[in-house]
Amino acid sequence: MTPELALAEPIARRIFEKALDRLDRASAGDRTNAVRIPIDVDTAPEICSAETNTDRELAWHVLKTLEEDNLGQIEFGKTVRHGPPHERKPVFVISMLAEDRIRSAYARPRRGPSYGVVWQRLTDGSALSGQAKDVIRKSPIVIADRTAEEVFERLMTIREEHDPVAGALLREISARAFWGLSKVLDARHELVAALLDLEECPYPDQPIHLSVYFAGAYDGRLLFIENKTSFERTIRDIDHSDAGESAYAGMAIIFCSGFVGSSKNLRKPQSVRLFYANDEISLWASIAPFKRDLFSYVDVPTFFWGDLDYAGMAILSHLRGTFRCATAWQPGYTLMLSHLIGGMGHTPEEARKGGQRPIELTGCRYADEVLLPVIGTYGRFVDQEGFRVASMIDRPK
To answer: In sequence order, which residues have a C-beta less than 8 Å from that of residue 67 and are 6 or more positions away?
Structure first.
């Protein structure tokens, strides 16, 4: 579904029209940077009073399409952490950066200057250098329930309080400047560098933490495991198996939770902190060649083992963007595949994975020709945690 088709859906029209009505009634001083519209029986009967799960999923798909196009964001009540999404007090938060586009779609012209216009005026009227103004003008920072003036004023405190020797992390700077919000400056390195008149942002990102276990002397192969329970089970099985028969022999086993494994910084030594799970002195010699392979951008045999679902396949696809020859690890996925074909597995809804979207290709031949077609045919997923690959000879069920 395209964003244009989603905008034409009744659920989208009700939510956005209600938001525009609220904005039109507000005075300039009462306008906020975001409008929160409850996803309830009045605005979204397709969700809250749906006759079938298919109707409800289609309505959610409309809202998620709008969210992906930066027209708003779905949020849930903090006091309701369990239950189906429509029972968790959902709201659709509409950013003022999307206001012009929404008004155009429904032929509702705005009143007064937009958030973006106010941001540009503040930038142009500041004491920043011309180059800094060029960067910051086109990158407004929007924080719900805060005005452009408030946000811009706090942004300027970063410049005023910059200490080049303090060694702060980027999220620490964000939290100090923006009312305790630590993620405001994520992916805004260029803006921060311009703000401080520097070529590069002086505040590093939060490092990626990788736990590494060597299954004997490292032989140049990497195995990324998605889930912590499976990583721990693998270590225990290796410790109690014959090294010569181990399916993992010679591998560096790496726990890299979820989509952290897809980070483009995974091969940058300044962005990664390594923790080694081995205590055998004999394996310390594996550290140097492992770090060389991890951080040299050379093609090394790389494998991924995670959940047999669309999210797992998406992680594999992203991992291949950094490790070009990465493939799905067949010893692990073969067990899971047999389990799924044998009539087991769970529906996406049972595991609250209904929001996962099908992925067409990962670039890994085994995943694309075997795993993805089976997932599509059976419509079921399998979590990684229930499977063990102790040896190449004996694979426990």
So the answer is: 73, 74
pLDDT one digit per residue (tens) for the chain, 397 residues: 788 898 999 999 999 999 998 888 876 656 667 889 999 999 999 999 888 888 889 999 999 999 998 999 999 987 777 778 888 889 999 988 888 889 999 988 866 677 888 999 999 999 999 989 999 999 999 998 899 999 999 999 999 998 876 778 899 999 999 999 999 999 899 999 999 998 888 888 888 899 999 999 999 999 999 999 999 999 988 887 765 567 899 999 999 887 776 677 888 888 899 999 988 887 889 999 999 999 998 899 999 999 999 999 999 998 998 999 999 999 999 999 999 999 899 999 998 888 888 999 999 999 999 999 999 999 999 999 989 886 544 443 3
User: Mapped to the 3 state alphabet, what secondary structure does 206-218 carry?
Assistant: CCEEEEEEECCCC
Question: How far is 121 from 197, CA to CA, in rounded Å?
Answer: 20
Write down the H helix ranges in 91-147: 99-105, 115-124, 130-137
- 8 Å CB contact between 173 and 206: no
Q: What string of DSSP letters covers 45-106?
A: HHHHT-SSHHHHHHHHHHHHHHHHTTS-EEE--TT--SS-GGGS--EEEEEGGGHHHHHHHT
Q: Largest Cα–Cα distance of the chain, in whole Å?
A: 75
pTM: 0.59
Domains, the chain? 3-105 (1.10.10), 115-195 (no CATH), 208-386 (3.40.1360)
SS3 288: helix
DSSP characters over 345-361: -B-TTTTT-TTPPP---
For residue 196, the SS3 value is coil
Residue with tokens 């007064």: 112
List phi, psi (to 5°) of 223: -130, 115
Burial class of residue 127 in the structure, from the number of CB atoms within 10 Å of its CB (0-12 exposed, 13-18 middle, 19+ buried): exposed
Instruction: Give the residues across from 328 on adjacent strands.
Output: 304
